[in-house]
Design brief:
This protein is mainly alpha-helical. The protein contains 21 helices and eleven strands. It has helices spanning 18-34, 54-65, 88-100, 111-123, 139-147, 195-205, 221-231, 261-266, 271-280, 294-300, 315-328, 331-344, 352-355, 357-367, 374-379, 393-399, 404-417, 423-436, 441-453, 461-468, 470-486, and strands at 5-8, 37-40, 104-107, 153-156, 163-168, 172-177, 185-187, 210-214, 237-241, 244-245, 311-312. A three-stranded antiparallel β-sheet has the order 3-4-7. A two-stranded parallel sheet has the order 1-2. A two-stranded antiparallel sheet has the order 5-6. Strand 1, helix 1 (18-34) and strand 2 (37-40) form a beta-alpha-beta unit. Helix 12 (331-344) crosses helix 14 (357-367). The longest helix is centred in the N-terminal third of the chain and has 17 residues, at 18-34. The protein is elongated and about 105 Å long.
Length: 488
């Protein structure tokens, strides 16, 4: 076990976004490759944006994806609490340390005063920044005003000149001039720390060796390094993963389709496919392969191979990949995931599965090879549970012709005479009918498929016949013959 410690630190303001899932995944991959630990920390100090049940949803999504953590909620550990809302006294203690050391100071500027200053700067075409109004207030005077109950924030006293450079593990050396930063707030007037302060205290006290996160945090890094510098702490190594953009290279949003893990799961995507797809958003195995497991990725993963170019979000590719996993994964992994879709669509109730496990397994195994999602498995199975209410119009025009009545009646007679009624006997019977009538086998199969499913596309026709059963197959063939007779 190495001393590598990385973290995933979501803010519980909604479901686990696909970008957040990717961040968690790459931290997990790095920790497993290095024999280190992944720590889960919940950054829940943004009170106004917190959403009830978000934490449980995030934990559920991570577990479903197979991304396990070594310390954090439900696991515990030696560096807790792992919820920021339970660490407020820690932040206040370290904030006071910086004030006492003269590295931070109390700011008594009101919201209105700050807004007026920004307006003046904007009018003068200057970049908005704090004017350091309270920076040089004598310490005793500032303490007296605090003791008197005056509202205040705490700001970090930053250098006014020079630059700050750090090496990013993905983007290389990055430099920011100090003219881009003012004395930013580290403790708000309500006693809640700002993000850039709390995250530094947490990452230091929790022993993080690497901080691997989304590129949108790149601009936060210099501010955090200023906090590290104020404390005299050694910062971790930083790596910022490329952005995920929509196909039109705009910022990813709801208009581009599902964006949360929970939504993808609800639409019938498999965890294995999502993980595989996310892995390719910023990294590759070094060859042309597109399908590979988490375990294979751990062996091959190198942080240096991660791309600094934006990754393009493509649900078509994810859907194709899901179809590959749907057809190739062991059936016992598919069955528990697909059951809720059959219940949701009203095909069966929960109790049905207990008495029909073998039949259900055969059905799913038959259907899954021609569809791309679990929802499509249920959609493609509906005719096994519901009567045919309508036939595909194009199929009717092509396959329900008057001359097909005689062929379908021969099929009915052959099935009625079939005492075994399995794949072999049904296929043999249809081959004989085709040969006796000097027809291609498809000319016999297509009208039957339409009669049994209402569709022109289905799993193997003989599989469908056997799964429907002899009685229902005959019933639907008779119904189709009557339909053709009534629509000549």
């Amino acid at each position: 076990m190495s001393d590598v410690r990385v973290r995933f630190a979501p803010s519980p303001t909604g479901y686990l976004h696909i970008g957040g899932a990717r961040t968690a995944l790459f931290n997990w991959l790095f920790a497993r490759k290095m024999g280190g630990k992944l720590i889960l920390r919940i950054e829940d100090t943004d009170i106004e944006r917190l959403k009830e049940d978000s934490v449980s949803q995030i934990l559920t999504s991570l577990k479903w994806l197979g991304i396990s953590w070594d310390e954090g909620p439900e696991k515990g550990g030696d560096y807790g609490p792992y919820y920021q809302s339970e660490r407020l006294d820690i932040y206040r203690k370290y904030c006071q340390q910086l004030v006492d050391e003269g590295k931070a100071y109390y700011c008594f500027c009101t919201v209105e005063e700050l807004a007026a200053e920004r307006a003046r700067q904007s009018a003068a075409k200057l970049s908005p920044r704090y004017a350091a109004t309270c920076r040089n207030i004598p310490v005793e005077e500032a303490k007296a005003r605090v003791a008197a109950g005056e509202t205040y924030t705490v700001r970090l006293k930053n250098p006014t000149e020079g630059s700050i450079t750090f090496h990013d593990l993905i983007h290389g050396d990055v430099t920011y001039g100090m003219d881009q930063f003012d004395d930013f707030v580290i403790m708000k007037s309500n006693g809640i720390p700002t993000y850039n302060f709390a995250v530094v205290v947490d990452d230091h006290l929790m022993g993080m060796t690497h901080v691997l996160r989304a590129e949108e945090h790149l601009s936060n890094t210099p501010k955090q390094l200023l906090v590290y510098r104020a404390f005299g702490w050694e910062p971790p190594k930083f790596g910022h993963m490329s952005m995920i953009l929509a196909p039109d290279r705009s910022k990813l949003s709801k208009r581009h389709g599902a964006t949360s893990v929970e939504e993808f799961r609800g639409q019938g995507y498999l965890a294995e496919a999502i993980v595989n797809y996310l892995t390719l958003l910023g990294w590759g195995p070094g060859d042309e392969r597109e399908i590979f497991s988490k375990e294979e990725t751990v062996k091959l993963f190198e942080l240096e191979q991660m791309s600094h170019k934006a990754a393009i979000y493509d649900t078509k590719k994810l859907t194709w990949m899901n179809g590959q996993y749907l057809s190739e994964l062991p059936l016992d992994k598919i069955l528990p995931e697909v059951k809720p879709f059959f219940v949701k669509d009203g095909l069966v109730d929960e109790a049905w599965f207990a008495d029909n496990e073998e039949y259900f397994a055969k059905l799913v195994d038959c259907v899954r090879v021609r569809v791309k999602t679990l929802q499509e498995v249920a959609d493609a199975s509906s005719y096994f549970f519901k009567d045919i209410e309508a036939y595909d119009e194009k199929g009717v025009a092509k396959h329900f012709k008057p001359e097909n009545i005689a062929i379908m009646q021969q099929c009915i007679a052959a099935i009625e005479a079939d005492e075994v009624y399995d794949l072999a006997t049904t296929e043999a019977a249809y081959n004989k009918i085709a040969a006796d009538n000097n027809l291609a086998l498809g000319k016999v199969i297509h009208p039957t498929r339409l009669a049994l499913t209402g569709r022109t596309v289905s799993p193997g026709m003989f599989d469908v016949m056997v799964l429907l059963g002899k009685e229902k197959t005959l019933e639907r063939l008779h119904k189709a013959v009557t339909y053709i007779e009534n629509h000549q």
